Amino acid sequence: MTNFEGIYCFDSASVRxxxxxxxxxxxxxxxxxxxxxxxxxxxxxxxxxxLLDACQEHFYAIEPAAIARYRATPGSAITLTIxxxxxxx
Length: 89
Description:
This is DUF1488 family protein. The chain is of the alpha+beta class. It has one domain: Shew3726-like (Double Stranded RNA Binding Domain). It is built from 3 helices and 4 strands. It has a 4-stranded mixed β-sheet with strand order 1-2-3-4. Strand 1 (5-9) and strand 2 form a beta hairpin. It starts with a strand and ends in a 9-residue tail after the last strand.
């Protein structure tokens, strides 16, 4: 299982998480995924702090989307939406 680093942000209704696009020895990058995206893309039905578990459970799909966004727009803030996932691109 991937080491998941994340927090739930009540003010933005999102999970903010860290990922390492170049592996554990590379830079640590922050991104976020909205509660709405977790609900719509992954069928998650929990709310609030419970979204951390849901994000960790689906990190196998979330992390590659974050890495792709990071590589496409380096230096930009990363907020994943349903458009970042294959079926809705």
